[in-house]
Each structure stands twice: as C-alpha cells, then as structure tokens.
Amino acid sequence: MADIHSTPPPLQSQPTAKERKYDRQLRLWAASGQAALETAHILLINSGTGVVGVEALKNLVLPGIGQFTIQESAQVTESDLGVNFFLVDEDLGKFRAEQARERLLELNPDVQGHAISEVCLRKLRL
Amino acid sequence: MGLSKPLETFISRSDALTPYTFILAVLPLPPDALSVLSQHASEARVPIFYIHSIGFYAHFTAQIPDAFPIVDTHPDPTSTSDLRLLEPWPELLKLAQDTSHNLESMPDDDHGHIPYVILLLHYLEKWKTAHGGATPTAYKDKTAFRDLIRSGMRTSSSAGDEENYEEAISAVLKTLNPHTPSSSVKDVLTAPESKNLTSRTPSFWVIAHAINDFYVRNGVLPLSGSLPDMKAKSADYITLQNTYRLKAQQDVDAVEADVRQLEQQLARTHPIPRDEVAAFCKSAGSVKLVRGRTPQLAHPTTWGDRAAAMATQLSMPDSLLTLYIAFLAYDTYASTHDLFNVGLHRANTRDSYEAEAEKVVGIAESYIDHLLKEAGEHLDEPEYSDVKTAAGNCARELVRAGGAELHNVSAVMGGVVAQEAIKTITEQYVPVDNTCLFDGVGGGMGVLRL
CA B196 to CA B67: how far, in whole Å? Predict the structure, then answer.
C-alpha cells in the first residue's frame, strides 16, 4: 500500500531478447497476451487447394504461437506452386502438410510445428 | 474420394482433438467431419473458425464458446475515462478544496498550473451552491458551466491564455456525465453465469458477481484509477494521481473482500489471484461478453432465431448476406458431389460447368425463399429479383472458380483470420461476432451476426 505514494522507479533493466523480438506486438497485447499465444496449440484442418489456411498460420507463427498442427493428406502438385507461397518445385509429390510445416517453421524458430498426413491410412484406402 | 477419408479417420479417434486449443477448419469439408468438429468445439469450449476462399470470394465464421467474457477490450481511453467528478469521494473533494481555496488570489504561475480536474471540481462546487445542489448534466447547463469556468480564466497573464483552463473547458462535455455502466457491462454483471455461482464457475463470473454487489451498494463501478495527462506542476499531478490510485486500490480491496467471502461460501479451493480482481476492477467499465453460437454450415434445415435478422439484412441493398448464402449453397452442393472439384472435373465442355453452376444457383435461391418464409417476411419487386440475382451471381462465380484460390484473396482473408484468432486466443479486444465476408469483385468486406 505504501509504494503507491512514491514515484515509479525508472526503467532500469535491459529488455530481454524476447521483449526485443516481439517489442511492437507486446505494446498491443502485453506479456499476458503473449503468454496466451505461447501456450496455444492451433490445429489447421486443411482442404481444397489449402492456401488460406497456411496464410492464416503464417500470421500466427510470426507473432509466436506455441505450436501448430496441419492435418492434410494432399500431395504437392504443379498447380500448388503458383498459388501456395510455402511450397516450391522440389516439394512436388511430397505431402503438402509436411512441406508447409517446414517452411512455416523457418519464419520463427520459437514455434513448434507438426503435420498429420496419415500416410499409411491413405495408402491403404487408395 | 480418398482425400477426405484420412480426416474422418483422424477425428473419429477419441482424444484426437484434445491437444488443440484452437481450430482452423478450411471449407468445404465432409458434413460428418464438420459436425464432429463443431460438436467437439462447443463441448470442449475450444474456438473454431470455418474458412472459405474460392476465386474472388472469401469468408470466415467464428464459433466461439457460448459465454466468452473479455476483461481487456482495449477501449478508446478518452471515451472511457472515469474521473468521478459528479460524485467525488471525500478525499478527492478535500484535495480539490485544499488546492483551490485561494484560487482568485493566487500568483499567475500557480493559477495557470492548477490541474483541470481540480478546476472542474472547484467550479462544480460553486455551481452546486448556486443551483441548489444540482450538477450541470444537461447540454444547456454544460454550456453555461463552461462560461462559468471561462470567467475565472486570467487572460492578462504574462504566459498568455491559461492551458489548464482550456483543458477544463474542453473536458466539460465528455467528463461530466452520470457514472452509469453501459448496457454491455450490465449484461455481464447480470448474466445468469454471474448469478448462479458454483465451486467450479470460472473466476471471471465470481469477480463479476462481487462487482455487481459493489455496484448495487455504491451506485458506481470500482474506480479505474487512471488519470489522463494534463497541464500541472509535477508534484500536484502526482498527488492527484495518487488520490485516484489509492481510491482504486480501496475499491479493489472491497471487491476482493467480497470475492474471498464468495469463495468461502462456494468452498472453492483455489483462491482467485488479487491481480485478476484488480485487472477486472480497472476495466470494469469496458468489460464485454460475447455469446458465441454454432453457425449454420452446409445443409441448413432451419434458420431459427437468425431468420428475422437475416431477412431484414436481405432487404438491404448490396448486403453481403447473399454471398454467405451462395457459400452455403456451394458447400451443400459440394458435399453431395465431388467435394473439391465443383465446376472442374467435367469442365472441358462449357455446358457442364454452366449446368453445375445453375444447380448451385438453384440451391441458393431456394435458401432465400426458405429464409423469407420462415421469417414471415415478403420482399417486393424489384428487391426480390435483385437479391436472387445477387446470390445467383455469387454462386456462379464460386463454381466458375473451380475450387481454385487466388493467392491475394487468400492472403487478405488469412490476415483477417489470424487477427481475429489472436484476439480470441489472448482474450483481448473484441473478436468478430461472428461472420466476416470478403467480396473481391466489388471490393467489399463486412461482418454479419448470423
């Protein structure tokens, strides 16, 4: 109770690496908001050509969510390359979820990413 | 066909969805999988966003838990500042009297540095004496009150016009308002969740209950304690700031005492941290409750309590609701045909694309009629034809796109989805409630509550 009558102490400590990295967004949602993001685990159930979901994830990986998982069983085809910025030529024929996961993780090393392509199940059913 | 099976296998496993705190589902999805997702989300109170991006059109609907309270809505500070000037507590009144009792005889320098809050309190006392204790709340009275303040301003002072008086005059209209909570705050305080507490009620509602008791007792909400910047000498400003802070802390103390008593009555084992009580008290004037709901996905059978509002929305020119109906029709058609190849797999002949488009248009038109009938509404010509044409054109464009996405449209929608997801995850700001539509042909975006 007594401390409120004194003026607040000047900012003495240097900002941590995380505070520097996320400086601008911490002004928007403070440490509490950042902590909530860092404990979030976001599941993307992707379908169709699957671009909008990956674009949304990009904007969540950059501010530092804890984890994401992409559930998608499609493989990369030629038509993906023109529209999905997270897939490149050498990904052709590989699983889209796995390749997009790797590219997304390059954006922010503090984020964990997972992909569920259901390889075995898919092969059985085809 | 093989493409959709892995999803159904995945989500049919028990616990498959438990690790996730937030779900993004890109439509169209098989109806069975969708209903599993939607049901899981509402039972586990996990937010789920359903997203579409097809050709020039995109959409998302947020399904958030049915009671989603937000403490920190980040309101505009000027619109919510609560200086309690019409009902000052004794310490504030005494400070004002001590600081301003010799206002007329003060040296110019001191006179030009009396904080405007003190000036307002000083002239309010004068006003009350002259008006039988009444405060100037009507617009006419406020204008007269501003003149009263202006009459005390020294214009001959060496420093020119007195900035503190200018601040006081410009603050009259927005600060001298009764301290009644907004209707959205009352919604929170009187919500059934805050009335019927149990040992497992989320702490938000226990605090809301205590704050409602505080409000009933005192006629005002707990003081936020923040003071805007103003022209003043540093020492005076800090004294004033501390007066507000101390009162805010006393209010937190009172609310916390109630919270502790409630905890004891309810036999709650984990005490609510004082910080949480303090944060709620600080934002008491701007808390917000969003009532999430399960949206209509493919194959709508009834529009329920949405019917009337949607029918009204339909009668408005250029409403984006027609686009939403086209998406519903598209998903319904896709779920009974080849999910991701609408307009594509027989597309080498122009006729087959058009035939498929007309089927989706037909579904969209039947939804419009069904909706109007359920709402008991009637649209006159030419509005009726216009609405059908608009929905039909959206449906044709969706089919024409052949399930393809345009990167720029998806990037826009991906940005909006992420922004709203962050609001929901951080429980800060107020998220979209509940449907957002983007029309890349007409260049429009809007939010509808469906």
Answer: 14
Whether the CB of A51 is below 8 Å from some CB of chain B: the reply is yes
Residue of B nearest to A36 (CA): B426
- Assess A32–B contact: CB distance below 8 Å, yes or no: yes
For A5, the closest of B28, B242, B426 (CB atoms) is B242
Q: Residue A8: its pLDDT value, please?
A: 58
Residue B101, exposed/middle/buried by CB under 10 A (0-12, 13-18, 19+)?
exposed
Residue B301 has pLDDT above 90, yes or no: no
| Nearest neighbour of A58 by CB, restricted to B406, B414, B425 | B414
Q: Does A120 touch chain B (CB under 8 A)?
A: no
Q: What are phi and psi of A37, to 5 degrees?
A: -65, -40
Residue B48: DSSP 8-state: E
Q: How far is CA B64 from the centre of its chain?
A: 13
pLDDT tens per residue, range B11-63:
777 788 999 999 999 998 888 888 889 999 999 999 999 999 999 999 999 99
In angstroms, the separation between the Cα of residue A56 and the nearest Cα of chain B is 4
ipTM of this complex: 0.87
Per-residue confidence band for B306, with pLDDT thresholds at 50, 70 and 90: confident
Q: Could you tell me what percent of chain B has a pLDDT over 70?
A: 95
Determine which helix (DSSP H) or strand (DSSP E) holds B425, and give its type and residue range: helix B407-426
Per-residue pLDDT for A126 more than 60?
Answer: no
Question: What is the token pair recorded at B298?
Answer: 């493919």
DSSP string, B289-351: EE---PPP-SS----GGGHHHHHHHHTSTT-THHHHHHHHHHHHHHHHS-TT-TTTTTTTSHH
Residue of A34, A49, A93, A40 lying closest to A69 (CA atoms): A40
Q: Choose among B20, B421, B425: nearest Cβ to A69.
A: B20
Beta-carbon separation of A58 and B418 below 8 A: yes
Name the most confidently modeled range: B158-172, B285-299, B429-443: B429-443
CB contact under 8 A, A121 and B5: yes
Using the predicted structure, report yes or no on whether residue B244 has a pLDDT greater than 90.
yes
CB spacing of A51 vs B405 below 8 angstroms: yes
Task: Fill in the amino acid letter for B70.
Answer: I
Q: In a 10 Å sphere around its CB, with 0-12 CB exposed, 13-18 middle and 19+ buried, how is residue B391 labelled? A: buried
Find the residue in B nearest to A116 (Cα). Answer: B10
Could you tell me which residues are beta bridge partners of residue B16? none
Q: Angle, to 10 degrees, between the axis of helix B5-12 and the axis of helix B31-44?
A: 30
